[in-house]
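Lest this sound abstract, we think one record worth quoting, the chain in one-letter code, the fold tokenised, each line plainly labelled:

>
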Amino acid sequence: MKRLLLLPALLAFTVVSSAEEPKTKFIRFAEEETSDSLQTAVVSYESPQKVQVDLVGAVHIADKAYFDGLNTRFKGYDAVLYELVGPAIEDRGKEPPSKDGQNLAWVGQMQAMMKDALKLHGQLEGIDYQAKNFVHADMNMKQFTQTQETKKESFLTLYLKAVQAQKSANAKKGLDSDTAGLVMLLKVFTAKDSSTGLKRMIAQEFDSVEDIMAGVESGDGTVLVGERNRVALEVMDKQIAAGKKRLAIFYGAAHLADMEERLLKKGFKRTKTEWLKAWNLPHEE
């Protein structure tokens, strides 16, 4: 297991570009005088019909204050479209878990281990998914597995694509993927130094996650990102047709470069970007 598995799990998955527009960053590591931070973007777009859509980048484990701030922000939207492979939040537990759902359990388990090791909070416990304006905008488990079968995609093929993308990103930095990945995992799960130090080490790696995901999505894209994004925007179109004028799409930050490209092709224009602190990393004295 290499470090590339950590970043997509935190940014692209909850179990549970245009030539005219420059590429947008949706996650960054910011160094400041008294503290550093891992930040996610809220990027706003407007359609010719004056419909506003905000892409709200998520990192699935974060400071409690980050999730509290999002809950407050989400109250101002007509609809908040959220990701969750499987049934909508309100339907969870009504049916016995499927075999396919059990096969994805490792994603949640990895996020739980990272949450505990880094002393952070989980998205599913931090976000109010029972809010009346929340709308499920993702594949159900049957759609997900059937689309994977159609595309002949498996977690092994995704892993191999991610390996190559990680190597390419690391080569630009002069790093060795295997050695660096092993060191990160050992530090996260065995180190006795402070959680702030571990978070800072991992947060610095997020600067390359968008390059990695671009490599993974090369060719005809993946179910993990591209096909789920397609479903999300189909739900968006239905919400707009129903008269909603201000919408948020709340998805892992690794999804949003592809999602922005799809919005721009629909005629939306980017209007502003705001950055939110997901991990506050004060300097140690």
Summary: The radius of gyration is 18 Å. Residues 3-282 form one domain.
